[in-house]
Design brief:
With 155 residues, the chain is an alpha+beta fold. It has a single domain, classed as tt1808, chain A, CATH 3.90.1570.10. Helix content is 19%, strand content 32%. It contains 3 helices and 11 strands; from the N terminus they run H-E-E-E-E-E-E-H-E-E-E-E-E-H. The longest helix has 14 residues. The chain starts with 19 loop residues before the first helix and ends with a helix. It holds the Pfam family Uma2.
């Protein structure tokens, strides 16, 4: 009897595809935001179990907490103050805006930053508005965090 042939392919979610620029931006964002380490927790690639779904922002800015080195937490249930999402090479922009509108904002996230590396742009979304930054200093009024775009998009 002949064994049936199957086409085998690997399934993946596009948001899980990491690239060089994506990784470099995560590093530069967390490094630049490090000056706020005494005020906020700056947490890259941490998963959240939120009231409107599960999400893993590239960088989350949260209320300052205490680490319990004996008992770790896999998924936080308290929403971040800011969720930073970096557009991946094979990802649609609507994936990120839908996540903001359907998961982040209804779950209590105040601000979502959408980073578009190809345009060296950060769009700051709040439930009622959006503001696009392409140079200078991004100022998040919700947290008073400021970020120089030249620091993250330098060659």
């Amino acid at each position: 009897m002949e064994t049936p042939q199957f086409d085998v392919f690997e399934e993946f979610q596009t948001e899980d595809v990491m690239s060089y620029n994506h990784a470099k931006l995560i590093y530069r964002l967390t490094k630049s935001l490090g000056k706020y380490d005494e005020q906020y927790d700056i947490l890259p690639e941490l998963e959240f179990e939120l009231s409107h779904g599960r999400a893993k922002p590239d960088v989350a800015i949260c209320q300052l907490g205490k680490a319990n080195w004996l008992r770790d937490v896999i998924r936080l249930t308290t929403p971040p103050l800011i969720a930073i999402e970096i557009l991946s090479p094979r990802q649609a922009l609507t994936d990120l805006t839908d996540k903001a509108l359907d998961i982040y904002f209804p779950s209590g996230v105040r601000t979502v930053w959408v980073v578009i590396p190809q345009f060296r742009q950060v769009t700051v979304l709040t439930p009622g508005q959006q503001e696009v930054f392409t140079d200078g200093t991004l100022h998040d009024v919700q947290t008073d965090i400021q970020l120089g775009l030249s620091d993250i998009f330098k060659e």
